[in-house]
Amino acid sequence: MLGDVETRSVSPVFVGRADELAVLTDALDRAAAHEPQALLIGGEAGVGKTRLTEEFIAEATRQGAVVAVGGCVEIGAEGLPFAPFSTALRSLHRRLPEQLAAAAGGQESELARILPELGETSRGPHDEESTARLFELTARLLERLAADRTVVLVLEDLHWADASTRHLLAYLFRTLARGRLAVVATYRADDVHRRHPLRPLLAELDRLRTVRRLELARFTRAEVRRQLAGILASEPDERFVDDVFARSDGNAFFVEELAACGGGGSCPPGLTESLRDLLLVRVEVLPETAQRVVRLVAEGGSTVEYPLLAAVAGLSEDELLEALRAAVTANVLLATPEGDGYRFRHSLVREAVGDDLLPGERSRVNRRYAEALEADDTLVRAEERVIRLASYWYAAHDPAKALPAALEASVAARRRYAYAEQLRLLERAVDLWEDTPREVRDGLRPADYTDVYPPCGCDPATAPLQWLDLMAEATVAARYGGERERALKLTKTALRTLEDDHDPLRAAWFWTERSRLMSSLGRGDGWAELGTAQELVRGLPPSQVHAEVLTHAASWGMLHDPGPDNLATAERAVEVARLVGAEDVELNARLTLGSLMSDAGDIDGGLAVMEEVKDRAVALGLAAILGRAHINLSSQLENNGRSEDAVALADEGIALVRRYRLLDSEAWVCGNKADSLYSLGRWEECAYHARRALEVAQTGKPRGAGALQLSHLALARGALGEAAAQLTAARGHFGTHDSQPQHRIPLDRMAIGIAAAEGRIQEVRATLAESIAQGIPPGNHRYAWPMLLAAATGEADARGLPAADAGRAAALDAIRAQARALATPVPLWAAHAAYVRAELLRAEGRDALSDWAEVEAAVRPLSRPFLLARVRHRLAEALLAAGGDRDVAAALLRDALDTAGRLGCRRLREELELLARRARLPLTGAEDPQVVRADADPDEDPAEALGLTSRERDVLRLVAAGRTNRQIAEELFISPKTASVHVSNILAKLGVAGRGEAAALAHRLRLFTPEAV
User: Fold this and answer.
1) Is it the case that residue 1013 has pLDDT exceeding 50?
2) Residue 69 has what DSSP assignment?
3) CB 549 within 8 A of CB 534
4) Parallel, antiparallel, or unpaired for β 304-305 and 341-344?
5) Which long-range contacts (CB under 8 A, 24 or more apart) does 827-832 make?
6) Taking a C-beta distance cutoff of 8 angstroms, is the pair 741, 775 a contact?
7) Where are the beta strands (DSSP E) in 45-180?
8) Given CA atoms 51, 53, 56, 58 in this order, what sign does their dihedral have?
9) Which of 452, 471, 446, 615 is nearest to 548 (CA)?
10) For residue 904, with 0-12 CB atoms within 10 Å meaning exposed, 13-18 middle and 19 or more buried, which class applies?
């Protein structure tokens, strides 16, 4: 290596960019104030991005910030996974070793995928959440490092970034919320054409309000003049300024080159107008040996390590150093900041030199690089070796070497969760397959390069690698990397090939993958594809593929079409998996089996099976299975009325899935915990966990569960607008392509509850009829009983409304018929059945004190405070109507009112206080002036207690009767405009959003007798 070589900076004066530098400095100040900053700097090649960044780094350093710089590496089309982040984190590791070790504490094996210096990487798990887990850990690492110091992360040349780097950068820009951190990224705008992979990322980041984007324009003539004066150390001739400005068009780098070749007067007349030739002027005046070394560096990558260059150049050390000294002195090459290699002063010069190579010359140079790396694997960093070797052999046009190298690089990319890069390398391997000699292909083994397709009937250590093995690996890499459309196309290509090959197991495997993809892409529910897979394995000897198909089929059936057939399929899946020794498949199958057993009535047996699976998955560290076990088991505990146990299990599950960074699993467990907390009356905790599910979920369905629980809370509290908004959000998250009863029925239940609260009884009936028509399969009683209760309560509350009379009998008959078909395997659902029966009787005006006493006795031991408060409201009402013990009624109302107040249930509180006031029971009322207080004058008009004037009372009576503003105006002899004003005032005083809700409230509070309406 050379020591410090004296070179003259061709642009010692920083020209222009004052506004841009001010923006960057402002971002630095904001970051120092614990407001994380994200900035993008774009501009054409040579416009001055690097110089602006250098000035900013100098200012940040002067202010005491810790600056780490990483550049994207141009090395073939696939890129080096996480290259700029690895370089930047390596710099932080050198400068802050103890602090970085503390920030990474406990997650070293995962973070080593980006920073290998942290140690060996863990085995996995590999799934669709793997990359998200790594990104989350990286974000938290940076936040911890920047907790008590300002950290500036500069990522250069995003236009060369690999897909994993782009995805990680987008994740950081979206999620960084704490710490004294500034992330600055640069890119070459003129390279980002319409199909460039960076373009979608830029569009996404433009939509984030937290990201600031700077676009550097070319210099004006005045700025070019100042730049030339700085370079020449004297005032330039004005004609020379005109000439340089015209030929450079204000590009700062071209100004430097023209100044260098033109001296102090004018550019030499013989210089071609081609910019490429301009860039080569510095190279062409170098000694021949130096020119040859420069050409080698141009083909070696963005940076070439000195030991590697020495191995490739074939020169003595003195000759090589002399050649490098000439290139550095001429400002063609620069030593890297770390002092271990060389790079071009500007990428434009490197591109010009590379373009000047002859095709045969380029292949020969790349071969020499590849041979040097094969001979000595210490010439480059270990994590870079395989990817660079793959790139060199591919550019050398040697398929026999390029195919194994691409496969080895794909394995390395997979270990780093860089699935996008793995996919590109596998696609390269697929392209190279036919051109590779047969004897080379026959020497490749599946065990060395692939592992997603399970061995069936062959030994992966001895059987030759097949083209379909590569297609299977590429399919899963695409799915894990979020490129589901590409994965779907790969399955189609593979299955088309399998039409001519009799290989039912491979075909079944691809059909199963296609089933997953069709569902996740919203093209269907995946059953047709899964049915094809089942037909293909039927009658075949046991195999892992067979077990996986059966497991997937049983799970699909449990979620979409519950019934006894699924139980048999799950049992068969367990049996086959056990026969072939596929324990992870067996555990998944047993988990499904346990759920199905519980749904079928063997509750204790099913829960025991699921507990065993959970414990085994935890012991083996099978992250995906332990995540699913906590999701399904907590759901089953809640299903069987064991809410306290469900919360305890969910707490255990959340801790575990957070350790493994299973974000979707965490969202599901949080959603399940929120369900149980709602049941237990711990509503603030419920809201927190529902929002947490929305925050961490990576896919739609767990987000839908969180939004649905928030809708449920809002409805119970009387916030109908919020309930409707959250219901709409939940429907959007769940989507329409993959309807499952466990999602569909709760959505219908919420729609029914909101419509009933707003007095839209016909909509209640239509929603219920449609839900029943779609079917309520066995095992879904947990979701169906609350829906029937909401519908029955809506019918009872609507009794006396003229709009509810037509169709009431048929609606009640439909509820009764469906209730008779539902299971009541535990006391919770038996209590719901009694509650539904009582509400149906109330809807017919036939409910009695004994009916509500039975319901109260059934609900009392269930630890369901909100449910109990509602029941005690009805029991007190029935007790008073029957002339029963008023003290008992008062005690019931006081208990229910306490629960309603604690939970914030406005609607229930209003009903309780109105009942107490009418019965003249001495209860303390709420402070809400809009609520009728129980201690008010018993002879006071309820409408006046709500703050309504006599005219507004008359208008509300007509609104409750379903009149329009024009009809109200005609009846009361006022103008339609005045009627509209009265209606607006009424809605404001009642705190409701619409006429239907106002009518429902008036009816529920018995403000008017049926005759008056």
Assistant:
1) no
2) E
3) yes
4) antiparallel
5) 827/641, 827/858, 827/861, 827/862, 828/640, 828/641, 828/862, 828/864, 829/641, 829/781, 829/782, 829/785, 830/858, 831/855, 831/858, 831/859, 831/862, 831/867, 832/785, 832/786, 832/788, 832/789
6) yes
7) 66-71, 151-156
8) negative
9) 452
10) middle
Element (H, E) at 94: helix 83-95
Q: What is the largest CA-CA distance in the chain?
A: 114
Cα four-point dihedral sign 265, 266, 268, 271:
positive
Residues 598-629: pLDDT tens digits?
998 899 999 999 999 999 999 998 888 999 99
DSSP per residue, 708-741: HHHHHHHHHHT-HHHHHHHHHHHHHHH-SSS--H
| Runs of H (alpha helix) within 460-602 | 467-480, 484-498, 504-520, 527-537, 544-560, 564-580, 583-599
Q: Angle of helix 544-560 relative to helix 564-580, nearest 10 degrees? A: 160
Task: Identify the CA nearest to 521 among candidates 240, 702, 738.
Answer: 738
Mind listing the pLDDT tens digit for each residue in 646-705? 999 999 999 999 888 788 999 999 999 999 999 999 999 999 999 999 999 988 899 999
| Of 823, 901, 836, 907, the residue nearest 865 (C-alpha) | 901
d(CA 84, CA 184): 12
**Burial level of 523, CB count in 10 A (0-12/13-18/19+)?**
middle
pLDDT beyond 90 at 949: no
Which two tokens mark 312?
């490739």
Structure tokens given for 484: 């589901």
What are the strands, taking DSSP E only, across 223-340? 304-305, 333-335
In DSSP terms, 229 is beta-bridged to none
CA distance 476 to 473: 5
Model confidence pLDDT, tens digit, residues 443-485: 998 887 777 787 666 777 788 999 999 999 999 999 998 899 9
**Contacts from 257-263 at CB under 8 Å and sequence distance 24+?**
257/281, 257/282, 259/10, 259/227, 259/228, 259/231, 259/232, 260/10, 260/231, 260/331
- The band of 934, judged by pLDDT with boundaries at 50, 70 and 90, is very low
Tokens at residue 107, please? Answer: 């997650």
CA distances from 277 to 246, 256, 281, 292, 348 (A): 17, 15, 6, 17, 11
Tokens of 943: 């409408």
Q: What is the pLDDT of residues 6-22, one digit of tens each?
A: 334 456 778 888 889 99
Q: In what order do the strands lie in the sheet with 151-156?
A: 66-71, 151-156, 181-188, 37-43, 211-215
Lowest mean pLDDT among 127-136, 326-335, 372-381, 752-761: 127-136
pLDDT at 818: 97
Q: How far apart are CA 912 and CA 892, in angstroms?
A: 10
**Strand ranges of the sheet holding 341-344, from the earlier edge strand across to the other edge:** 304-305, 341-344, 333-335
Element (H, E) at 211: strand 211-215
CB atoms within 10 A of CB 503: 17
Element housing 888 (H / E)? helix 886-903
Residue 743, pLDDT score: 94
791's tokens: 């519908």
3-state DSSP call for residue 647?
helix
Q: What is the mean pLDDT of residues 215-233?
A: 87
Identify the CA nearest to 301 among candidates 230, 390, 216. 390
Q: Residues 877, 883, 886, 892: is their CA dihedral positive or negative?
A: negative
Say which residue the tokens 């979707």 belong to. 664
Within 181-220, residue ranges assigned H as helices are 198-206
Residue 278 is encoded by which pair of tokens? 């301009």
Q: Is 191 left (phi over 0), alpha (psi -120 to 50) or beta?
A: alpha
Bigger pLDDT: 74 vs 1011: 74
Residue 884's SS3 state is coil
Terminal-residue alpha carbon distance, the chain: 97
